[in-house]
Amino acid sequence: MSTQQEQETKQRPHREMTPYERYLQQKRKRRTSRIIFWVIIIEAVCLILGAIVLFLPREDPEVEELIHKKVRFDYETEKARVVTFGLAVPKPDIDVQLLSVNDWSRPGIVVNKIRKIVVHYLGNPETSAQENRDYFESLKNLQDTYMSANYVVGTDGEIIQCVPDGEVAWASNKANYYSISIENCHHDESGKFTDATYLSDVHLVAYLTEKYDLERDDIIRHYDVTGKDCPKWYVEHPDEWEQFKDDVMTYREECRSIQRHMVDELLHGETENETEKDVLREYLDSFKEETVVEMETSDQDLWEDLKKRAERYGDH
Fold first, then answer.
1. CA-CA-CA-CA dihedral for 67, 72, 73, 79, to nearest 10
2. Of residues 194, 182, 180, 176, the one with CA closest to residue 233
3. How many CB atoms within 10 Å of residue 194?
4. Which of 3-12, 19-28, 105-114 has the lowest mean pLDDT?
């Protein structure tokens, strides 16, 4: 059948077609359907293969090298690796009672870097650390003054933390934005600290100055910021203020000396009969928490024993 005849056949109503013409028409439709079906299948297969290739992980020689590389550590002795050098000054006993975040006593402003420790006195004799902390908290409701401190030290030596170290407390004027403030309770108008308050102050200031890598000249009075008679006793007795800072630094050095002595005992042992393994095991036995050992060492038997101990700790 010619092309012209096919077109004429297509244009003719179905009822006017001969059986043969109807057969040809159905045949053409089936062929067109098959072509469309296979085009769709081929396109779908190509899309799937393309997606697989796109998301298939590629081998990276450097990554493969790192995966199969056996990591080793440089060290002098097993004992030197076990020793962890932390702060020499122990953290004093601190009762953490943080204030609610509010404009009047704990604004929640972050301090970029702590550069000073500021010592104050409260100027309110015979009040306790807890009473002053609670007063700071009440300011969010009273809304009549801005006041707080990072720490309050009581007359019995108790220490309450009101504001985190890294936040502004309303205590030291322009120094609020780079310091930690410590308010101190006292018995009378002289503002003199009790022995217990003094001792806690020495321990707290020593801890904070070491923690934030500060030195003697970074310990200041409120007076040194604004000229205010605070802390009153140390403004009126500057020689005793110098003694306070000396005591802080002396305590820090004593703690460092004790740390060096303890490390020396760990590294060298106290008796000639005490072996390196004995010292290391004694040190690890002092821990009450899980010990994780992932290192290689020349003393493989010892580290295998430590791994077993770590597993036992993990079961408790």
1. 130
2. 194
3. 17
4. 3-12
Going by the DSSP 8-state scheme, the letter that residue 188 receives in this structure is: S
Strand pairing of 151-153 and 179-184?
Answer: parallel
Q: CA dist 161 to 19, 56, 96, 148, 169, Å?
A: 101, 55, 5, 11, 11
Number of H helices, E strands in the chain: 11, 6
Q: Please say whether the beta carbons of 149 and 169 come within 8 A.
A: yes
Amino acid letter for position 237: H
Residue by residue, DSSP assigns 251-281 as HHHHHHHHHHHHHHHHHH-SSTT--HHHHHH
**Stated length of the chain:** 316
CB 171 within 8 A of CB 177: no
pLDDT at 306 over 50: yes
Dihedral, 20, 26, 28, 31 alpha carbons, nearest 10: -130
Closest CA to 210 of 159, 162, 254: 254
User: Which residue did the predictor score with more confidence, 7 or 116?
Assistant: 116
Give the CATH superfamily of 95-256. Peptidoglycan recognition protein-like (3.40.80.10)
User: Which candidate, 120, 78, 106, places its Cα nearest to that of 222?
Assistant: 120
Tell me the C-alpha distance between 198 and 216, whole Å. Answer: 17
Q: Where are the domains of the chain?
A: 3-55, 95-256, 269-314
Cα separation, 181 vs 118, whole angstroms: 5
Give me 262's structure tokens.
Answer: 């303890």
- pTM score, whole prediction: 0.61
Helix, strand, coil shares of the chain, percent, nearest 5, are 55, 10, 40
* Angle subtended by helix axes 300-314 and 276-285, to nearest 10: 10
